[in-house]
Amino acid sequence: MASARADTTAPLAQRTPATERQGNQVLLNGRAYPLAWRQWQNSQPGQVSTGVSDIGLERRFGVQLANTDNYQQQPAQWFTPQALSLPTQFSSNGVYRLVDISALAQTFSWRMQAQGNVLQIQSPPTQVQQLRIGRQVWGQRLVLDLDQPAPWQIERLTNSRNGSTSREFAITLDATTPATLAKTWTLPTGSGLQSLQVTSQKGRTTLQGKMAGNMRPRVTMLANPYRLVIDIQNTAPSPRSILWAPGIRWQEQTIALGNRQFPVTWLAIEPQQRGLTLEPIWGNQNGLVGIDPLSTIAQRNQATAAINAGFFNRNNQTPLGALRRNGAWISSPILNRGVLAWNPQGQVQVGRISLQQNLTTATGQRLALVSLDSGYPQKGIARYTPTWGSSYTPLLKTEKIITVVGDRVNSVQSSTSATAFAIPKNGYLLVARSFDTDTVLSPGSQIQIQTTTTPNNFNAFPNILGAGPLLIADGRVVLNAISEQFRPPFDIDPAPRSAIGQSSKGTILLAVAHNRLNGPGPTLSEWAAIMQQLGSVNALNLDGGASTSLYLGGELLDRHPVSAARVQNGIGVFWRPGAL
Question: Domain spans of the chain?
Answer without folding.
Answer: 21-122, 128-233, 241-352+457-579, 354-454
